[in-house]
Design brief:
By secondary structure, the chain is mostly beta strands. It has one helix at about 1-45, and strands spanning about 45, 50, 55-60, 70-75, 80-85, 90-95, 100-105, 110-115, 120-125, 130-135, 140-145, 150-155, 165-170, 175-180, 185-190, 195-200, 205-210, 215-225, 230-235, 240-245, 250-255, 260-265, 270-275, 280-285, 290-295, 300-305, 310-315, 320-325, 330-335. It has a 5-stranded mixed β-sheet with strand order 1-26-25-24-23. Strands 2-29-28-27 form a 4-stranded antiparallel β-sheet, with no helix packed on it. The protein has a 4-stranded antiparallel β-sheet with strand order 3-4-5-6, with no helix packed on it.
Amino acid sequence: MRKLLEASRKRLAFLTIGFLERIMRDLVITSVLLAGITSTVWAQVKPVESIKVAKAPYFSALSPDGETLFVTGFADSEIQVIDLSNFKATRRFYGGYEPVGIAISPVGDKIFITNFSPGLVKVVDAATYEILDDIKVGGRPSNLVISPNGLQVFVTNFGRGKIGRIDFIDTTSHRVVGEIEIGVRPVAAALSPMGDRLFVVCSGSNDLYVLDTQGKEVVKKIPVGLQPDGVAVSPDGMTVYVANSGTNDVSLIDFLDLTEIRRAQVGNKPFSMTVDDQGRIFVVETLDKTITIYDSEFKKIRSLQAKKKPVDVLLSHDNRLAFVTDEKANRLLVFEVP
């Protein structure tokens, strides 16, 4: 009997240990699964605000004080004004027929807007929203950027033929003071931190043009991926990023050598992009309906979930918010940036 009891105790201890091991193993597996679910949920961030704006919103511009956002409504020919203190659409004003690109002077007194089909750049009083001037640039102006000192506006212009160009506009006289012929369908441009170099992507000829803004001349033409649609510059100015919609990748260009270092794979149809002060790259992946944040090595950090067709992303001055225009949803989406 004693031997039988001893054997029973040993068997019970063995079964107990085995049972506990199975429980611990199940707990570990459950934890791993939960961690994976948590990671997936963590990676897909939804907007904290979804603001109805004018139809077919393309691009936006932020006032120098960071309190007001202006959004172009291509189909409505209007500019939507957003009060960022409460995320309310306060009013609209006429932005000319088919407004696309928009930029605000550094002192905040003037707003410049491209009108695609008419071939105009509207100059608008930022206080009254009255039209101050119409600048005839011809062709089909798509986008624009303003120099850091506010003295010049650089306009990407499709032109009427196959050759595109960049128009240089004096912000005081509102006159075109220079033109440079470049590749086919220039769609976006970005400035170096000093403002001495302008980087322009031409989606029809698959290249990046580097321009000297003072000399008004082409420094170099760099082949990139297929259908480059977006461009941005790192905070230190040493790397230029080009979003290639046709090859679903980003070209990394060395600023000093002006050569392509490598290409990094991203999501489907990267259209536009921006970079924050930490060097993180925000890429609008239109077909995926996401804005993915990558580190400087292009490791994915997080994705922001848009609704139907995101077009552009703009960051608040403190880099805490991301503003995304969604063309088909007619919405401005606001995300908190981690």
